[in-house]
Amino acid sequence: xxxxxxxxxxxxGMAVGIAVGVIFGESAxxxxxIGDLFLRLIRMVVVPLIFSSLLVGTAMLGDPKKLGRxxxxxxxxxxxxxxxxxxxxxxxxxxxxxxxxxxxxTQQRLLADAGAQSGGAIDRLSEQAPSVTDTLLQVVPxxxxxxxxDGVFLQIIFFALLFGVALTLIPKKEHSEQxxxxxDGVNEAMIQIMHxxxxxxxxxxxxxxxxxxxxxxxxxxxxxxxxxxxxxAGLFLHVMLVYATAVRLFAGMSLRRFFRGIRPAQxxxxxxxxxxxxxxxxxxxxxxxxxxxxxxSAFVLPLGATINLDGTALYQGVATVFIAxxxxxxxGLGGQLxxxxxxxxxxxxxxxxxxAGIITLALVLEQLGLPLEGIALILGVDRILDMLRTAxxxxxxxxxxxxxxxxxxxxxxxEPKAAERGQ
Length: 423
Prior knowledge:
Elements: H1 6-24, H2 32-61, H3 64-96, H4 104-118, H5 121-128, H6 132-137, H7 144-150, H8 153-169, H9 173-197, H10 201-216, H11 219-223, H12 225-251, H13 255-272, H14 275-288, H15 294-307, H16 310-326, H17 333-349, H18 356-368, H19 379-407
């Protein structure tokens, strides 16, 4: 009998989780601690893995000109796909007009229910949403150790990049090599820990999915079905029209190989709603299944987990138009262009953790003068949509790694055999 692969076990865990959530409802939250344990084990290695892999990857590129070339390609791809994602979301929201179908009575009930569930979080969102200037300034850490302790990923990435560049500029190569050997060892150790943790993935995924379905149920999903379908349709179109086309056109990779290779990371990202927590899984499968060199994956993927949040940007575009429609406010062309700019900047500054999109959405709403109370309307379905947009974000990171690696001649063209994929 053929041994089941890890993605198959994860898919089984998801199916069981959905069934448990539907059957037991809110009681399914009792197994949430199992999922939380799985998340904590993954997050345990995220900071040291991001720092060590990005530092080593940057230093291994050697030539600062090469680093600048790869960094330029990566940033250009991320910014372009983010802008396209927001545009897709705006077009769908304007055509479907999901907010026009919510009557006043339903609106008041949702506001009351979600407001009570948020425990005042909505009132605090305006305080938590940073300005654009603050977002840019806060990229530079005043205390790198504090940034690592607090998990401020933009600051960690900035310091790791600067550290890696500095190592390439040290005249005595034996000094830089000693540092690289140490952090390369740290990186390898974190990867080995991830191999151990991933053995718990099917059980952890089952608990997370069951808890989410049991808590949010189907009642609110029925009320906000049009909005949820708009976001889901936009994410699907973005993946198939943008990522799939780019991978096929610029890297020459078959879509079958690409989506099969990145499937485990998509499933983990879907269940955890955290592109940062899924980063170790994404790096492993992008390197071993998609054939991206370790140099490219160690540079592109940690960067993408922090600044390439296309799914979040698309969701913010749909959510902003939806909230404006619910309140009967019209957004002209200027307002829609503002959404593109603000959502792009907000998605760059968002942390790759569950629920971060809600905080950055507040920044967009505040800039447009829309009521922050409108966020209460989408809190009920945000967790489910967060899963979908996280899977989209991870797919975008992997597509960038494949394309950049192909442009640099560092993409393994041959598809690995099943045994080499661990299947």
